[in-house]
UniProtKB/TrEMBL annotation:
Name of the protein this chain belongs to: tRNA N(3)-cytidine methyltransferase
InterPro entries named among the record's database cross-references: Methyltransf_12, METTL2/6/8-like, SAM-dependent_MTases_sf
GO molecular-function term, one example from the UniProt record: tRNA (cytidine-3-)-methyltransferase activity
Source species of the chain: Myotis brandtii (Brandt's bat)
Entry keywords, A to Z: Methyltransferase, S-adenosyl-L-methionine, Transferase, tRNA processing
Length: 357
């Protein structure tokens, strides 16, 4: 749906009102420092029963599948680009996928727990100084024999992991990595009956710490999935996270992004006193959320050296018929590709090159 000028003005006014009073600086520091505590509490309470499986994921992002598993024609029909181009009003069509509300939060933490140490012990041999300095040898990392590799950042309890694994059953050459900085979430994934270590590697990782090694070398991923994760990271850390993830992609690899958009109903519902900084809020459980514009998303991923293939605002109207309440949902969705050939600027002046030709 498209918003009227009046609706957008009303949303802007609401944000001005709920952001007029900011959280005290010392409280903001606490939310950053103790982010893992809020997450661990969340998973102790909800376990894997809070979020619904993202069965819409492959409809929005067919790039998750290897090309030999889905023809280019099928991918075109299922992709958002096709729907948007061939429908004057996609949201009025019955086959248009419904995307549930997300509240996935992913934060940096300076603390660690016994559970986290246990989850990371599987990769203890990979965390040595030797592996920090150089690429891992082919026989030292999970998924080394795969020909198609995916990483989901902020996997939570596996609501994307298991729909993807279910689809990849017929693609044994594919491998899925998934990480979260909450050790409890990773344990939920690894204890799930559908978890297959032969095709999936779940590990504890804080994406905000770019000094931490991954259990695989840089430049080998075909897909990085970043869905409702970046919004929960402090805005000052976002660019560094995207820069690091870009290095993990192979040339031609895709980073797939979906997150909260500016003036989503979640933003409008915040009360005064919950605003941390411009368009960045803290919820009652201590987790945080940022609300993006299309321009911010473009700037962030392009600064990381990726080419924009898709960047759109997804506005939808959800109606609670029982309560007769209309809710305006706003999401930003993007697809960004690592260039096949990275161009390097020559330090030799042009006239010098000409003189040698």
């Amino acid at each position: 749906m498209q918003w009227s000028k009046e609706e957008e003005a009303a949303a802007r006014k609401k944000v001005e009102e709920n952001s007029a009073e900011r959280v005290l600086l010392e409280e903001q520091v606490k939310y950053e420092r103790e982010a893992n505590k809020y997450w661990d509490t969340f998973y102790k309470i909800h376990k894997n029963k809070f979020f619904k499986d993202r069965n819409w994921l492959l409809r929005e992002f067919p790039e998750i599948l290897p090309l030999d598993q889905k023809t280019e024609e099928e991918a075109k029909e299922l992709s958002w680009d096709y729907v948007k181009t061939n429908a004057a009003n996609c949201f009025s069509r019955k086959h248009c996928p419904i995307v549930p509300e997300e509240k996935n939060y992913y934060q940096k933490s300076s603390d660690s727990s016994d559970g986290q140490s246990k989850a990371e012990s599987d990769f203890a041999n990979l965390h040595s100084e030797e592996h920090r300095k150089g690429p891992l040898e082919a026989d030292l990392f999970p998924g080394s024999k795969a020909t198609f590799r995916i990483l989901e950042v902020g996997c939570g309890a596996g609501n994307s992991v298991f729909p993807i694994l279910n689809t990849l059953q017929n693609a044994p050459e594919s491998f899925l990595y998934c990480c979260d900085f909450a050790s409890g979430a990773v344990e939920l994934v690894k204890s799930h009956p559908s978890y297959r270590a032969a095709q999936c590697c779940a590990f504890v990782h804080d994406v905000c710490d770019d000094g931490l090694p991954y259990p695989f070398p840089d430049g080998i991923l075909d897909v990085v999935l970043l869905v409702f994760v970046l919004s929960s990271i402090h805005p000052d850390r976002m660019q560094g996270v995207v820069n690091r993830l870009s290095k993990l992609l192979k040339p031609g690899g895709m980073l797939l992004f979906r997150d909260y958009g500016r003036y989503d109903k979640t933003q409008l519902r915040f009360k005064r006193g919950h605003c941390l900084s411009e368009n960045f809020y803290v919820r009652g459980d201590g987790t945080r959320a940022y609300f993006f514009t299309k321009g911010e998303v473009h700037s962030m991923f392009c600064k990381a050296g990726l080419d924009e293939k898709q960047n759109l605002i997804d506005r939808r109207l959800q109606v609670n018929r029982k309560k007769q309440v209309k809710m305006h949902r706003v999401w930003v969705q993007g697809k960004f590709q690592k260039p096949l050939h990275l161009t390097q600027k020559s330090s030799t002046p042009a006239f010098a090159l000409l003189s040698h030709s």
